Amino acid sequence: GRQRMKRRNYRRVAGAAWNAMQEGGGMVSMKKGVYEEEDTIKLAGMTTLKAADRAQVIVLGPKKKDVVQFEVVNSRVLMQNIVFRRFASNHEKLPTPSQDLIEWNTCIRMAGGLLRAVGCTFESSKGIGCLVGTDSVLQMSRCKVQLCGSDGIAVMEGGALTVNDTLVSDNGENGIYVQGKGSIARIYRCNLIKNQENGAANLFLGTMFLSNSILQANRKNGLHVCGNRVFVSPWNGVNINTEAQGEANAEASKCTFKNNMDNGIHVTMSSKVTLVRCDIVGNQHSGVAVASSVAKVDACRVRQNHRHGIVAKNQ
Q: Model-level pTM?
C-alpha cells in the first residue's frame, strides 16, 4: 500500500507538470509524502514546483530505470523546499559508473532555461546532483548537495551557476565542477567540504568567482584551477589528458581553504587565480601551489600548511 501511494503521488505530480507545460507554465504544489518516480518529469514554460505549507516532500528516483529525475528544457522553473534522492537506498561509495549512468542518474538536468532552487536537497548516489548544460542558468540558495556518486554540481560549456548559502559535501568527485568555453560559477557564502576530489574544480576556459566560502577537508584540493581539458566527456570521471588546452580563471575573496588533503589552491596549465583576504591554513601539502600559471595573493593569511606556504614552478 505504501509503494502504491508513492507511485500515486508521483503520477499526480507528473500530470500537474504536464498540464503546466501544455499551458506554458503554472504551479505544481506537492503535498507531504514520499514520491516514487516512474519516469522523467519534464518542466517547461514558467513552472513552480514547491512543497505545500512547509510539508516534508521527498522525491525518490526509480530503482531499476536509468532516467533523470527532472529535466528542465528552455524554461523558467522555481523549485522550493523539496528533497530529491536518486537511488536513495544506497549512499555507499560505488565503483566509477559508466558515462551513460552518470549522465542519466542525475537529480536535475538542464538543457536551456533558468532554474531557481530554494531550500532543496539533492542526493544522487550514482551520478551528479545538478547538471547545468549549454545556455542554462542555475540559481541555488539555501540548499544541500550531498552524497552524490560523481560531482555535486557540474557546469558545462555555456552554462552558468550562481549559488549562495549552500552546503556541498561528501560527493564522490568534485563539490562544484566547471568546464568549457563560457562556463561560469559564482559561489557566495557556501561550504564545500569533505568531497572525494576537489571542493571546487575549474577547468579549460571556465571562470569561477568565490566569496566568503569555506573549502575544507576535501580529499584533493580546496580549489583546483587547470587550463587543460582533463576529462574525455562531461560525465567521465577518468583523468585522461587530451590535446585541448585553454586558460581557466578564478577569483576568491574572504574565503577559507583549510585542512584539505593536498593543496589549499592548486593552479596549473596556464591558468590565473587571484586571492584576496583569504585564510589558507593547515593543508596537507601546500597552501598555494602554482605550476606554469599565475597566482596573485593579496592580504591573505597563509599558515601551518605541512609542506609549503606558497610554491611556484614551471613544468
A: 0.89
